[in-house]
Amino acid sequence: MKRRASRYALAVGLIAVPLLLAALGPLLAGPAGPRSVSFDSGAGHWLGTDFSGRDVRRQVLLGGRSVVLVALAATGLAYLVAVPLGLTAALTRRTWLEEALMRPLDVLIAVPSLLLVLLVASTLTPGQAGLAVLVALAAVPDAARVVHAAAAEIAARPAVEALRMQGESWWRTAFGYVARSMRRTLAADAGIRLTGALYLVATAAFLGIGVEPDAADWAVMVDRNRTGLFLQPWAVVVPALLIAALSMGTNLLFDAALHTPAEAAEKGSQAWTR
User: Fold this and answer.
1) Between 234-258 and 218-225, two packed helices, what is the crossing angle to 10 degrees?
2) Environment class of residue 133 by beta-carbon count within 10 Å: exposed (0-12), middle (13-18) or buried (19+)?
3) Nearest to 151 by CA among 77, 96, 101
4) Using CA atoms, how far apart are residues 139 and 226, in angstroms rounded to an integer?
5) In Å, how far are 119, 120, 130, 210, 237 from 124, measured between CA atoms?
């Protein structure tokens, strides 16, 4: 229990700072002051100035909302598509329908997510909403396959056959029993999927996709200020650490949530018997 509590504390601590900055940062940023010398460390700027002389502290307060909201929206959209798709393919008794739903995903999985985003961005100019949709589409194939694999095993149980014989609706069988039975699998996958979305959103912003080149965005700050890393490192280090903390904290939180006391007791008894 102590180890689990320490995991929760560490995860919450890592996540709390970037989330609070993303939620409350724009309210605390205040008005933009006069610009100073590029990569300056003094003149009342707590974290120095960036490549264009703007206050890094203010840019950090403003730059989290775009990264966090786009990643969360992309993850949510991915599961809105992947869960019904995977459940339909797993519960159908028509092989042709299952193949028609799942085989196109194999083609999409072969295309790297970042390449897919770059290909679409080369013909269109997506904003933040468009970037969220692109990242979601890139995550759907993997998420749908995880849902399909987990649901197929549950769909073969006698309980599902009993629900069908009782005349239960597809919706009640799929979401009332199958989806509930694999919620732990979905929770574990959600942690990985959100981390992947954060990485892809940050990389896309780093490349200038979905945001303006001089936007207040943590990923853009890392890109635009890297030339002055040795002159004024906070303009790069602070946003990079916030992105890393959010990714690490998300995985730790899901790991701690999935590590139940019953499992810990079972592992302890197995170790004792050995």
Assistant:
1) 140
2) middle
3) 101
4) 29
5) 9, 6, 9, 10, 32
**DSSP per position, 27-85:** HHS-S------TT---TT-TT-B-TTS-BHHHHHHHHHHHHHHHHHHHHHHHHHHHHHH
Find the length of the chain. 274
| pLDDT values of the chain reduced to their tens digit, one per residue, 274 residues | 666 677 788 888 888 988 898 888 888 887 877 778 888 877 677 888 888 888 888 888 988 888 888 888 999 999 999 999 998 888 887 888 888 888 888 888 888 887 888 887 777 777 778 888 888 888 899 899 999 988 888 888 888 888 888 888 888 888 888 888 888 888 888 878 887 888 888 778 777 777 776 677 787 788 788 888 888 889 889 988 988 888 888 878 877 776 654 444 434 434 333 4
From the list 157, 155, 141, 153, the residue with the least C-alpha distance to 189 is 141
Q: Under a CB-based contact definition with an 8 Å cutoff, are residues 67 and 238 in contact?
A: no
Are the CB atoms for 104 and 137 separated by under 8 Å? no
Task: Work out the number of other CB atoms within 10 angstroms of the CB of residue 119.
Answer: 12
In whole angstroms, give the CA distance from residue 97 to residue 88.
9
Residue 254 token pair: 């899901």
Task: Compute CA distances 36 → 46, 49, 51, whole Å.
Answer: 13, 7, 10
d(CA 197, CA 113): 10
User: Both tokens of residue 37?
Assistant: 């010398």
Structural tokens at position 174: 């799929």
C-alpha pair distances (Å), 60 with each of 67, 163, 194: 12, 53, 21
| Whether 58 contacts 29, CB under 8 Å | yes
